[in-house]
Design goal:
- The structure holds two protein chains of two kinds.
- By secondary structure, chain A is α+β, with helices and mostly antiparallel strands.
- In chain A, 23% of the residues lie in helices and 31% in strands.
- The longest helix of chain A has 9 residues, at 40-48.
- The termini of chain A are far apart.
- Chain B is of the alpha+beta class.
- Chain B is built from three helices and nine strands; from the N terminus they run E-H-E-E-E-H-E-E-E-H-E-E.
- Classes of the chains: A alpha+beta, B alpha+beta.
- Chains A and B meet through helix 2 of A and strand 4, helix 3 and strand 8 of B.
Amino acid sequence: MNDAQIQTSTITVQVKFFASMRERLGVDEQTMTLPAGSSITDLWKLIAGEAKLPANTLVAVNLEYEDAGHVVHNGDEVAFFPPVTGG
Amino acid sequence: MYVRVQDQPLDPWEQMRQYRPGDVDDGSFGATAVCVGTMRDFNEGDVISGMTLEHYPGMTEKFLQKIAKEAQDHRDVLDVLIVHRVGELAPGDPIVLVAAWSAHRAAAFEACRYLIEQLKARAPFWKKEVMEAGRARWVERNT
């Protein structure tokens, strides 16, 4: 096996946090590098050290709602936020 | 179809007076249904003195465009409009205006209701309210 086969490929995503989620984490935006094939749950584990997303947390990937099992890709914009309260 | 998110004050009645339903001839619509959401000075038993409305630039507009298109794709709906405030608001300030035009009232009422319910359930906006003592809290439940 050569190096290329052994090496796990990684991806980079841009992560945004809104409202109470931003205040809780103390950051509004960050760049994260993680293994290719990672899901949103995997990404959250890296960010917060928690195995599961907090209850009621909403997630968007590239401006569309996705669920926690969605696999992220290189260059994606991922956003975590609490339930929405507009109108 | 017209969608806007604005940080400037919203006067819904001036907005309605100015708006010309796109591609709709005068005389073709018989009903205009309008819903205006206005900031209250009370919530969950507390007096509320102010509010900050946050959104997700890009996603919010995209979501509003999506529901506007869904409402307008109904065969009897001629046009729809959504304008939503962000930024600092005071009690009595209008938060949102949705409107729908149709030949007969049923489709206009349905489209207007669809727009405001979808917006409240899914559009990425968040309210942080300031109570009398200056304490602030994020609104967690949308009523």
